[in-house]
Each structure stands twice: as C-alpha cells, then as structure tokens.
Amino acid sequence: MSLRYALLAILTAAPLTGYETAKRFEGSVGHVWHAPDSQIYPELRRMETEGLVQGREERWGPNSTKTRYYITAEGESAFRGWMSEPLRYAPWRDVAHMQAAYFEWTDPDSVRMHLQQHAQHYEEQIAQWSSQVQAIESHEHPMIAARLQRYPAEQHARIVAFKSFAYEGLIRLAQAEVDWANSGLALLEELEAQDAEGAG
Amino acid sequence: MSLRYALLAILTAAPLTGYETAKRFEGSVGHVWHAPDSQIYPELRRMETEGLVQGREERWGPNSTKTRYYITAEGESAFRGWMSEPLRYAPWRDVAHMQAAYFEWTDPDSVRMHLQQHAQHYEEQIAQWSSQVQAIESHEHPMIAARLQRYPAEQHARIVAFKSFAYEGLIRLAQAEVDWANSGLALLEELEAQDAEGAG
Fold first, then answer.
1. What residues have CB less than 8 Å from A86, skipping those under 6 apart?
2. Chain B neighbours among A 70-129 (CB < 8 Å)?
3. Are A149 and A17 in contact (CB under 8 A)?
4. Quick one: DSSP state of residue A32?
C-alpha cells in the first residue's frame, strides 16, 4: 500500500504520464521508498480503476496517444487520510546486523571486509541523500520546482522544510551505520590483540 | 534466503525441534530478522531436503515422536560460505521517512502525533535491545548459555562481543530515529512560529 501513497505524493506535484511517473519516482520519492517500474505501471492502473487518479489520453506523435494521470479529489482525500492515521511499524529485518551477530564464524579478514563494505555503502548513501537535500533547498530539484509552482507562496517554506527533514533523517541513520561499522573495526582490533596476548 | 541463514545461526548453538526453533528464533535472532512461525517450519523442511540440517525422530510422550534438527557439516559450510561473501544491500524502503517528506499535507497536530509516535516506537526498541545486550553480556541469555557450553573457552569472548555489537548497532539506529523525530518536533514549532508571525 505504501507504493500507492508514494505515487499519490508525486502526482500532487504535477499530472504525469506513466513513463514520467516512473522517471520522477526514481529521482524523488524512490530514494525513500524504492519500487521497480514493473510495480508502478499496474499500480497506476489500479488507482485509476479505484478513482484515485484520472487518466486522460493525449496525442503523442502523429499516430499515437499516451495517458496522463491526474490526481482526483478522491485521491487527494485518500492521501490526506493516510497522513492522519498512525503508522504501523513493521518488525525489524536487517541482514547486515543479523550477520554481524555471528561474525565468530568467519575470519578477521572477512569481518573487516564486511564492515568496510558497510561503511562504504552508507557513505555513498549519505553523499546521494546530501545532494538531494541540496537540490531541495536550492529549489533546483525538478519535483520541488513543479510543486512550488503549483502551491501558494505561504506553503513553500513547509514544503521545502519537510522534504529536507525526511532526507536528513536518512542521513542520520546512514551516519549511525558508518559509526557502527567503524566501532566494529575497532572491536576487531581489540579481539585480535587479545588473541595475540593469549597466544604469547 | 536470509531466513535460512538465521535458522542455521540458531542451530549452531544447539539442535532444536521445530517448535523450539520457532521459540528461540523469536527470543534471539528474530529481534534482528523477524519471521513468522509459518515461514520457519517449511524452511526447516526445505533445509532438511537440501541436506543443511538433519531431522532425527525423538520419542515425545507415550505414543508420539517429534523431529529434532541437527545442523550438518554441509549446513555449517553453507553458513560459513555466506559469511565470507559480500552482502548485497537492498534499496531503501522506509515508510515513516517517506510520509514525513509530505507532512505539509496534514495539520500540525497530526505531524506532532506522527513524530511522537516515531520517537516512542524507537524508544521501546532501544529498551528491548538494551535488555538483550544485558542478557548477552551477563551470559544469562539462554541461547548464549547454550552456545558457550558448546564452543571452546577461547572463542567465548568473540561470541559474546559480536552479539552485543550487533544489538549496539540497532540501538544506534533507533537513537538516530528518536533524535530525528525530536528535531522534527523542533522544526514544527519553528514553522508554527513563522506562520504566527506571517499572520500577525
């Protein structure tokens, strides 16, 4: 169901064709809620059936048409409704931490590889999300630009502030992952020093 | 596939019946990798078919038997193999941050409710994971006790250290979530103050 709300979120910024929706998704809300194109197209059609969006045929080239999706009043109301309901939190599933709990089953070099890879992965995420924050705050992000054009000026501050805030939360999480991996590398050295002492 | 490795991890501590596996799962690795019982039983049977565990029938009461699962050499080798392969990181999917990006669609009271709920949820997780760390470090956790009995003393330090380390990572993440929610509450006050100024 989250995909549906992510798609409604995008369509509150501008009416889009299926193709544009998939592209804009990837460059905006897809950073926070990943979904492949193969899920996006059928979900848009389901949403149309349920009256949350309206598809309008548009001329596309000399002999063909394409569908542009407009959020309906019902779609906006579903989106607002979701916004005012408490979230249900899914139980935790994290394979990196699960694996780390059993690191005694591999050699120190593998542990080091895993922890370095973990830190690197989340450093890359930080870089990616930080550039999103920058594009949001400078209003250069195409979705932000479209959104600001559509909504009155007195709403602009909070539109921008909440989007930055969402990404800043992800950056905090990624930083916690990097710090954790680094503390693991320190732990590994400690354990190796203890082993060396034990053997000495 | 992660469920399979989580089950192998448990069975490296002790051979268990299906029922015991499900119970022990919930009290240990299930904190990090949640899975319902309905997934655990069929996966154990598949693992038996593939030779990763061996089921041995045991007498259970006067007229019945139950199956106890023992990890095989092949199972241990699969577990070690997984441990030495780099992880593939799944793309991000986080509904709380996704929703926060569009908080301008609801009123300040709903935003406050979401952020307070978010902080509370992760504070509860911190409490739960902290009590796991305590039970691990005191060796009172039943799975740790079983595991330490099974493996030589020179491995005990790392067995305990890595398990604590895994949970400490989760606590760091949960703390980052709490801090983020609190920063959101501060942001909300700021935006409300700006609105009041604008209206004044």
1. B113, B114, B117
2. 79-80, 82-84, 86-87, 89-107, 110, 113-114, 117-118, 121, 125
3. no
4. T
pLDDT average, residue stretch A73-96: 93
Please state, in angstroms and rounded to a whole number, the distance separating the CA atoms of residues B66 and B1.
26
The one-letter code for the residue type at A142 is: P
What are the pLDDT digits (tens) for B13-28?
999 999 999 999 998 9
User: Which one, of B97, B117, B194, B175, lies nearest residue A165 by Cα?
Assistant: B97
The region that residue A72 occupies, defined by phi over 0 for left and psi between -120 and 50 for alpha, beta otherwise, is: beta
As a whole number of angstroms, the distance between CA A77 and CA A49 comes to 16
Chain A, nearest residue to B112 by Cα: A84
Q: Closest approach of chain B CAs to the CA of A64, in angstroms?
A: 35
Distance, in Å, from the CA atom of B102 to the CA atom of B97, rounded to the nearest integer, reads 9
Smallest CA-to-CA distance from B99 within A134, A29, A174 is with A29
- Alpha-carbon Rg of chain B, whole angstroms? 23
Instruction: Note the CATH architecture for domain A2-84.
Output: Orthogonal Bundle (1.10)
Amino acid of residue A62: P
Q: Rounded to the nearest 10 degrees, how much is the dihedral formed by the CA atoms of A126, A130, A132, A138? A: 180
- pLDDT tens figures, B50-108: 999 999 999 988 889 999 999 999 999 999 999 999 999 988 888 999 999 999 999 99
pLDDT at A90 over 90: no
CB contact under 8 A, B89 and A183: no
Which of A55, A59, A62 is CA-nearest to residue A41?
A55
ipTM of predicted assembly, 2 dp: 0.94
CB within 8 Å: A87 and B31: no
The answer to whether the Cβ–Cβ distance between B87 and A176 falls below 8 Å is no
Residue B68 C-beta-side C-alpha neighbours within 13 Å: 8
